[in-house]
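#lab-general

N.A. 3:47 PM
ok so I finally got the sequence cleaned up, no stray characters, all 79 residues accounted for. can someone with queue access submit it? mine expired

B.Y. 3:52 PM
send it over

N.A. 3:53 PM
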Amino acid sequence: MFLQRDTERDRRFVESPIRRGATPHLPRTSGCGWTPCEVEVFDRELEALLLRWRRREIPDDGSERVAVLAFARVFPAEP
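B.Y. 4:20 PM
back already:
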């Protein structure tokens, strides 16, 4: 249910006219051949990246910042 809601939000943003200062987000897909171990490594690295961004020092540069949603999911291409 949340994934559907979040996907719809993402789709609406991508399809909306770009507002001044907004950076368009384009969905990223990657068809790779990974082992289960590689999936685990990727998952840990992705989580570490998100954690670094959550903990980073926010510069006092006068830029307007808006809340964003970041999500990723790795799963087999076929069941």
